[in-house]
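Consortium newsletter contribution from the modelling node. Members have asked for a concrete example of what our holo predictions look like. Here is one, prepared for the LLP complex that several groups have been discussing at recent meetings.
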Amino acid sequence: MSFNFQQNRLFAESKSLSEIANEFGTPCYVYSRAAFESQLAQYHQGLEGHDGLICYAVKACSNIAILNILAKKGAGFDIVSIGELQRVITAGGDPKKVVFSGVAKEYHEIQYALEVGIHCFNVESPDEIDLINQVASDLNTIAPISLRVNPDVDAKTHPYISTGLKDNKFGVDIKSAASVYERAATLKNIKIKGVDCHIGSQLTDVTPFMDALDRVLALVDELSAKGIEIEHLDLGGGIGVDYQGETPPNIPAYIQSVRKKIEGRNLSLIFEPGRSISANSGVLLTKVQFLKPNDHKNFAIIDAGMNDLIRPSLYSAWQNIQLIEPSNAPVKTWDLVGPICETGDFLGKERKLALEQNSVVAVMGSGAYGFTMASNYNTRNKPCEVLVDGDTVHLIGKRQTFEQQIENEQLIQE
Ligand code: LLP
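And here is the predicted structure:
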């Protein structure tokens, strides 16, 4: 088991989180190798016997040690920048298993991706196809592409992480997709491979995925009638996780229902899961600095803030917060607030916890969009990252230093 209680003490696999907090300090991200591997295995189980790729969305948690572990288990990767591609390559990932998403790819990024030979570009606009064609022609090569289509289904998730509606910036309206494909088919340095769609994140119901798939398959048929054959479907990421008692879809069952729908067609499948692989594979450890009860509210001031984990502030996301050790303090209702000079700087509100000064708590579900969205706001160093593997702990990301923060800054000469 990844994160588990043993005699009221929270463990990552066989390592107690208190020991980790003592050794590495707080704030600190702690990941479980077994959790990452077992989540990936669920996707591979669903896909078993069918041609396809599980391309982990690097943006969710991009430490190279994590990418390396996933690569060793056969994962491909979904990237959105040259930086993420460099991470994958540094981590020993196979560029041939990489799909490149993102609305604003630049010439040099496309060039590098073509040079290392990625699996496919997920193209988001007609202009982008022209640029990819141009770069491929300059390099005297052929670029494999899928068009990201926007199927206009409501993912029924937070508006900031819903991407499949008409008024989102992502992809091409599915109604105009056929004509975009027809034009792409005339370009000399473009090879049409697939259709891509990603409708949003933290979906706890598969209905929107299935609705999107129906629309995508109708497009595949329309293209086939025009002589354009599609080899793969990329259905993006988006499977939700249990943050607060949600019941997310069963991953192998979801993939099985997709397979059922495409039965009899010669289509391979790509998925781009991020959160469902990493969210519950990591926690953020943070220590109570001061207790500040007042007439209306009890504030527990902790040493991690919105710069370390922005999800609660940005999306009003709720993540469970647990004491990592039993405490004799009375249980009270606390707002856990960070050190940042912003009212919106909190990791949890109105939590019933037996907190005292120096208590260490774990913010659960922090493995996705945690460290990767951390910033240096208020000139705070980014936290360290450790990976637990059985009873062994590896430091996979050192705590940032002040010198590293300012290394690219310089005084003007007068
Ligand atoms: N593929 C594409 C093209 C994406 O844009 C995303 C996520 C994924 C795959 C992975 O989606 P997932 O399986 O993780 O849902 N920062 C937000 C989430 C933003 C998601 C952005 N795109 C959060 O913390 O909730």
